[in-house]
Design goal:
0% strand, 4 helices, rod-shaped, single chain
Length: 120
């Protein structure tokens, strides 16, 4: 019976350590539920229950291949903001280039021709 409790204790300790490390290394922006610091505190204070809650509720979801899930580009608001910002920058550059081209093509005035007088 002592061996069983010893094995259960070792497994519980390994699970506790693994859940703390996994929680600490998770990306802050992808943690679900409460903030990452709160998850670390929950896992440390409630070793087994906190670890189980971390893996069920707080841990970032992963796809079947083991990679974190990513949003499709048309579902990702940051991607869409970047597209709009890039479009605005291209439009701004196009306008500035057009203005510079217009300035280069404009006929140049001589110093005395514009107002009809000459300074001596």
């Amino acid at each position: 019976m002592i061996r069983v409790w010893l094995i259960v204790g070792v497994i519980a300790a390994l699970f506790y350590i693994f859940s703390i490390v996994d929680c600490a290394l998770a990306e802050r922006e992808r943690v679900r539920g409460v903030p990452k610091a709160a998850w670390v505190l929950i896992v440390v204070v409630f070793p087994i229950i906190g670890g189980v809650l971390w893996f069920l509720v707080g841990r970032p979801r992963r796809d079947r291949a083991g990679r974190p899930r990513s949003l499709a580009p048309d579902d990702d608001p940051e991607f869409l903001r970047n597209l709009e910002r890039d479009r605005q920058q291209r439009e701004r550059i196009r306008r500035i280039e057009q203005e510079l081209s217009d300035l280069d093509d404009a006929p140049k005035k001589k110093s005395g021709d514009s107002d009809g007088r000459r300074d001596a």
